Structures are given as structure tokens and as C-alpha cells.
Amino acid sequence: MTRFPGGRALGFLLVAGLLLIWEAASLARLLNPFYFPPVHQVARSLVGSVLDGSLGMALFTSLGRGFAGYGFAAILGVGLGAVAGQHLFVRQLIDPVVEFLRPLPSPAIIPLAILLLGIGSSMKVFIIAWACFFPILLNTIDGVRGVPPALIETARNFGLRYAASSLTVVLPAAMPAIFTGLRIALAVMLILTVVTEMIAGNNGIGFLLLEAERTFRIADMYGFIIALGLVGYVLNRLFQMVDRRVLAWHYAMHQVPAP
Amino acid sequence: MTATGGPILAVHGVSMVFEGSGGRHAALDDVSLEVGARDLVAIVGESGCGKTTLLRIMAGLQRPTTGEVRLAGVPIVGPEPQVCLVFQHYASTLLPWKRALDNVLFGLRASGVEGRQLRDTARALLDRMGLSGAEQRFPWELSGGMQQRVVLARALIRRPRVLLLDEPFSAVDEKTRVSLQEALLALHAEETCSIVLVTHNLDEVLHLSRRIIVLAGRPARVEKVIEPQGELLTRETLRSQLTVVRGRP
Fold first, then answer.
1. Is the peptide bond before B79 cis (omega within 30 degrees of 0)?
2. Mutation for testing the B interface, residue in A92, A147, A154, A247 having most B CBs under 10 Å
3. Burial, B128: exposed, middle or buried (Cβ in 10 Å; 0-12, 13-18, 19+)?
4. A162 touches chain B (CB under 8 A)
5. ipTM for the whole complex
6. What does pTM read for this prediction?
7. Which domains are delineated in chain B?
8. Complete domains list, chain A, with CATH
9. Residue B189: pLDDT band by 50, 70, 90 thresholds?
């Protein structure tokens, strides 16, 4: 696949063009300015919330919860996936439970989580970890199952015990699939962070966004939506940087471009 | 034979029965053989007759249903690092995220030793295998023959007492095969390890081995042991001897 040298710059220009159309349409009242305030008002609102620290504090709180849940999910998902991927018995053991729980929409268990954990951060972290856990687990199992048996047997032949072989051979070999799970879970993390804060929150970016809408601060609401979009964009770019570094061998070996 | 006169690796009455959803499948039946110190033994037999299973049992990667394998008189009860098995699909045993030099050093990962001296040893081994200049290349940047040389270097850095090779040159072209065979003979002359080789190639058997163990039957048994020394064994006479045993080598 050929990369166009100016492709990304053109993409940014497209965004700028859309914002200009929005600004012009709102000022000319082609769009209702109450629902679609001009972009300069949204920008002013966004800059204001950056300068007064409210946005930074909200994002700090939200991402703290998000990454706590994501971290728990990654440790549990990769750990259990590494074991289940290597042992049919463990896969058979967890399969009915996983296949029953996995299709449940995560927001559906929020009432139960509130009942058991209250409306504080622990509930939100639990819900985020819950939602992120399944894509990481399933991709890890798939990745581990795809590791050539001869590779694992060679490690055993060299005297590596189970834990050492899992850490130095099995998990690195399964890393491309594990990263697919982690990438999916990263998007899920951001969604569930906002959703849990909207349903049961008194701080965080999700709470601020909903509060702005409820108090008719529509420019603020758009500002928070744009901030969330930027956070998602930056997180994805950071993930891609790590991905390109960790899986450089994989992309080169299969002659596929890194994301 | 060892300093005490016994074999370095001895297989005693090994039988292997696999139990699966398709029922019982007997792969090996009362197989016994001995490998002496610095021996070079070829195991031949029909495809699927249990040669690879026998090698896995000899390396301690599989427990036999009955019988035992002893290394210098000590029973092997689990993966035995002093008996190094090189798999038929050798390319898939190289770590694709590590460069050739680090793949060789991976042979010593379990021993926990590391250091500059070992890197020099690994580099020297790669040089000996004709891979000087390829130390920093990834396995997927190497040809099949070069990958096989890295696998051999990785096995040798462990200084194993027995090297088990499962159809080591089956996936390379004729020219590479010949050069790898010469490399193996040179290694055998320089190293102290015994080599057990599974192969279908009669020329390879004649060229490389001092003793030929013929497995035949389902389940497989040791049908015959041929010792070419002292008699002029040609490809045709070997083929006829094998044909007497199995109909087709």
C-alpha cells in the first residue's frame, strides 16, 4: 500500500474546511445557532475551559479511571488468555461463562455495578475493566493458539519452564493478536469512561459534557465533544507509535504497512 | 560409548500408544536402541511410522507409554537440555522478533548465563556455519539454508551431548543440502556430541551415518540395524536391504 506524502495534511485541511462551513452556516443562520453555535464561540469556550483548568482536571479524572480499568483488563485478559490459549481444559472451563457474559452490553450491568459498588470511581473502573477484558482475552487466546507448537517445544527442550516459556516465547509470538485486542479495548475504554460518568458521575469529562447540555451551555458541550475527539485521536496515535515499535518485526516480516 | 563403556543414550523397550477421540493408536512397539559417544546414527522408516515420536521421547518432550530412555545411565523423565532436538519445521522454531545472533543466544536462555563472552561464542558459531555478516539479520530475512544453520548454531551453543535432527535438510534445495551435510560432518568431527538423524534421503543416510536403524511396521519396531563400515554399501544395496524390510524405504 502506497502512502501519499501529503495525505495526512490534506486530511487536516478537510477538517478545517468542514469547520469553516459550520462557522459560515451558523453565522448566516442556515443552521440554528442555538443548536449549532459558531465555531469561534465553541473555540472560545474550549480555550476558556482549558485556561480555567476545568477541562484538564476532568480529563485527568476520566483518563485515570479509564486507564485503571484498561490496566486491570490488560493484566487479567493477557494472563488468563495466555493460560487458556495453551490449555484446552482451561478454554473449555471458561468458554460457557465467557460466551454468556461477553454479548451482554456493558451498560446493561451498570445498574448491578451501582448496586454493589456505589456510584464512585470503583464502579466506573469495574465497568471499564469489564468491557475491555473480553476483546483482550479473546484476541490473546487466538494469538497464543496460533503459536507454532515446535516453537514452544523448542523452548521446553532448552529447559525453559512454563512461566519462562510463556513470557519469553509464547506471549511475544502472540503479540500481534494481543495488540489487536488492546487496540479494540482502547476505544472501548474511552466509550465506557464517558458513559459511566454520564450515568453516575459528579466529575469527569462525561459528567461535564452532560451537565453542559442540561444547562443549555451548548458551546461548552461542543467544546467538550471536540476535546474528547482530540483525546481519542492522541491516544490512538500514541498506541500506533507503541504498536509500530513493538511489532516492527511483524510488519516487516509480512510486508504490511504499520498502522 | 561413554568413558565407562556404556552408551551415551539408551532407549529400552519404548512403546508409545496415543489415546484420542479416534481411539487408540500405537505408534511404537518395544523399541530399543543405543547411541554411543560421538556416534552418528540414522533412523529410517516409512513416513508416519513414528520416527519423530521416537525423537521426541529421546529428547524427553514426550513420556513413553512403557519403557525408558537413559542419558549416560540416568533416566530421562522430562525435557532434557543435554539432548537437543532440531525439529523438521526448523524455520518455525526461530524467534522472528530476534536477530540471528540473539536466536543463537536464546539456546542458553534457560541457563541464565549471558555476557560479552557468550556473544562472541555465538558470533564464532555463526561464522563457523558460514553466516558471518548475517548476525544482525532477522530469521525471515534469511534463506531456508541459512535459517537451518542458525538453528544448528543455536543447538550447538548449548554443547549438547546428543543432537537429534528430524529430517533436517528436507526443505532445502540440492546445493544447500550438500553444503549443510558437509557442515554437519565438519561439526561432528569437531564437536563431542553424538548425532541421531532421521531422514528419507538414502544418499544422506549413506553419506552421513555410521549406523542405520531401520524402523518398520505399524506400530514401528526396530527391524534392522545396518553398519556400513567394513562393507561397501551402495545406494542400491541399501535400497534393496530396506526393500526387504518394508517394500519401500
1. no
2. A154
3. middle
4. no
5. 0.81
6. 0.85
7. 1-82+160-249 (3.40.50.300), 95-159 (no CATH)
8. 44-228 (1.10.3720.10)
9. confident
